[in-house]
Amino acid sequence: MVAVAPVMKKRRAKSADDGVLTVGRSKAGTIAANTAGILFSIFMLFPVYWVLNTAFKPANEVLSLEPTLLPKNPTFDNFLSAFKAPLFLENMLNGVIITLLAVAGALVVGFLAALSIARFKFYGRKSIILVILVVQLIPFISLLIPLFLMLQQAKLTNSLIGVSITYLVLILPYTVWTLRGFISGIPRELDEAALIDGCTRAQVFWRIILPLTGPGLVATSVYGFIQAWNEFIIINTLNSPDKQNLMAWLLQNQTTRGTAWGPLMAGAIITSIPVVIFFLIIQRNIATGLTAGAVKG
Amino acid sequence: MRRGKYPFIIGFLIVPVALYCTFVVAAYIQTFQLSLSNWSGLGPIEYVGFDNFTKLWHDELFWKSIRHNLFLLILLPIVTIILALVFAFLLNVGGGHKGGTTRGVWGSKIYRVIFFFPQLLALAIVAVIFGRVFGPDKSGMLNGLFPADWKPWLFLADERYAMLCILIVLIWQAVGFYVVLFSAGMGSIPAEIYEAAALDGATRITLFFRITIPLLWNTVQVAWVYLGIAAFDAFALVNIMTVDRGGPNGASSVLSLMIYRNAFEFSQAGYASALGVVLFFLTLTFAALTLRVTRRDSVEA
User: Where do the ABC transmembrane type-1 domain residues begin and end (chain A) (predicted)?
Assistant: First the structure.
């Protein structure tokens, strides 16, 4: 129901505006377009607003049946009790360690792989590219059983390392794919000039291609960070609660604590903060990061 | 760059290839193997041929789940892409043509951030939030907004609307990403084309259908693949949000949920693997069909 309303509004806005797109076009179209935008923004923002609203309400206001638009007595208690909740800090630390390991590993492995795909022609190159594309597409869930068995054999279940490696594998295709696009964008003439000046090939990679791939490395590491930080299905399956991350913590608390919405929403906000910060940093460049992988090489 | 390239290639590719052979290829082989057994998850493995697949064929829940996956597969890409295209168009071109430049509607930068915002929330959080949005009594957000004497809507607890609720959340979550993706594509369409068309008297609607859509078609196809894959998965939302996980009465069950529950709750690792094989082929068929259409752009390298 909710999704339909903005669409309808949109349609009406369109048909109301058959004005010709020239200088001094009638204002009606602009108003209609803005109305549609604002309505859709409300649809997009309302749940987020509701989370913030709940997180700052004291417990008695959260449970009251009268909806209030803003907390009457705003409080930070929910945030404090989230921090004090069992395993919250441990799980936060676990998440940080796992995410850093996975992203750093994926960057190193992915950069080297992207380099060889972008800069060398060799037998099997096309099939590697195809495999990268296809692997990205298959839902990971059908691999959970063998994954569990494999890590169990290697004694890596219930460990941060096992999950980190799994996440590395998960974000690697995107990393390789995007970095390959960035590397292909660097003119080969630069490599050749450096080789003529006496650089070894390793030096070319280290001194020329790596620094020029900087923006690509930022884009892929942010994407990898978001993926690894937000994952919860794998970690929930492989590890016991003390070795899980904040996402798993949230779900655990949703089922066990039932109606303690205030601390839960506060926990959700704390969990989202790192992602929001990263987003604000790269906000201007999201579009670049998204399309860079599409550059042909 | 000819001499001595193979040491580099092998050195650079050995780790990722090894990782894939272990985590993806070997894992799939094992899934295929287990799909032919009645293994519970513990103890010795006994092979039973294609029993799991015959059982699947007669499993009512399996067909329900397939239907729900197809429901998402058809509606999720269509609705999301239409919404995203319309809003990307508004943000980039909708403001009209003034002072020699084509621009988006007023405040389009703010809209872009707002639309992208759901993308930042983890699926786990999105699911928890929408669990409250669709709360089936007066404490639910939507029901709380209705007048006090209304009978509360059941939303996820109603067999008829459970999948619709899931669909709405998936769209809510995805649309911002595609607005940004399409905006990037529209940004690379030369403004002269719009200006020339506008001079020739094209209306906004004509611009949208005759210029923007044809020039963005490749991006739309990529979006289609990604959204299709999301429709095949949908595990997180269904698992967290729905009543009885997949209920009521199987009304929101999807394949991925069946796999998970059989594997880790019902001790039916063999049956779960058979479901995994089905999901594998369904996804691959879908991806192959779509990649075939987009082949020129995605695989050519």
Answer: 92-282
